[in-house]
Amino acid sequence: MSWETLLLLGAGFGFAYGFLLQKGDFCFVSAFRDWFSFRYTAVARGILVMVLTALVGWSLAVSLGWAPLDRLWVPAVGWNSLLGGVLFGLGMAVAGGCASGTLYRCGMGYVQFWITLAAMGLGYFTFAWLYDPWLLRYVLEPLRLSGPVTLYRVLPWPPVVTGLAVFAAIGLVLWLKVGRTGLAAGWREATASFRGPPGRLLRAPRWDTRVVGFLLGLTMVLQFVTMSVWGITTPEARLTALAVRAVAGEGAVAGNAYFASIFRGYPGLVAGPWEVLILAMVVGAAVAAWLGGTFRLRLPRAARLPNAVAGGFLMAFGSRVAPGCNIGNIASGLPALSLHSLVATVGIGIGVYLVTAGLFRFQGARRQARAAAD
């Protein structure tokens, strides 16, 4: 497939992701935080539907020969998987948006998340600057435990059998929890808002997260078959490298071990299909917000700016330590049945929990102090 065709595919998939994420208000921070705080699972249900859809689609595509198994993103496993996940979870909870949530909110007109995105660029640059020899020699290599591990390669049967077995196991748990009638009622509720003329649907400010999850999963299957898995933070790191080249010259990028490594397979230091995908996500979200009447320029409160900067920096740095963000490790890593991504997802949850629990304790202490003062 030609480079030009891949660029067009990247633009199309990016637009679709941005559009769907905005319509579902599909932020991974909310999925963790809402469950920790209130046991509210609306976004988490959408994420589960997305992962299961991709799981079945990817395993079927590999078994039918539509895509190679090597197209799955399965990094090596180590304590850095957990550490990077925790740092990323801390960052996205502090910033109030994950890697994908930051992009679609940029498209909605939130200036705060453009600041978060700039801070992420600083995080990528800092990681690249420290990578060789410090991080590589004294952190990443000592923390590594094994090479890449995926259940698709561990088990001896075709990938589709493994994928369907995992799907059935999760389905059984859901069946035991809510029953057949509960699952059917949930799907009827999810699809109810999709009845009616298409114009009204496009103008709706929000879609049900379960339907959005299903549509995201289908989009991920199409991308997997045609080009790759979905990722965000590595393309953002490449865009950061291109910004560094524009300021400091090509040698500043070509001479950096980390930046040079992430351009392998590229026809030079150029933006590729995956960088176009990132930019198109912002455009897709802007169009979805405009159609739904929710697009407007929103200036941040001054008190939120430190969160935007600190959270963005931690997200970027953590995504390089792990490696991977909420999309790489949850959306793309879990359907790949990657052990690294499972560990990183646990780390992300721990990071969000630490911030959520700390915030609740801080708010409780403030209420007690006010009550004592009164």
Descriptive report:
It is a single chain. This protein is mostly helical and 374 residues long. The protein has one domain (3-367). Helices cover 75% and strands 2% of the residues. The chain is built from 17 helices and 2 strands. The chain has helices spanning 3-24, 28-38, 42-63, 79-95, 99-108, 111-143, 151-154, 159-192, 198-203, 209-226, 233-248, 250-254, 257-261, 273-292, 305-321, 326-331, 339-373, and strands at residues 76-78, 144-148. It is globular and about 60 Å long. The mean pLDDT is 92.
Helix count from the secondary structure assignment:
17
Q: How would you sum up the major sheet? A: 2 strands, antiparallel
The class by helix and strand makeup works out as mainly alpha
- Catalogue the unreliable spans: none
H and E string = HHHEHHHEHHHHHHHHHHH
Instruction: Give the strand content.
Output: under 5%
Biggest sheet: strand arrangement: 1-2
Helical amount among residues, as a percent range?
over 70%
Distance between the termini: 70 Å
Described by the principal axes of the CA atoms, the overall outline is globular
Q: Based on DSSP secondary structure assignment, what is the total number of beta strands?
A: 2
Cα-atom Rg, whole angstroms?
A: 21 Å
**Mean pLDDT reading:** 92
Number of domains: 1
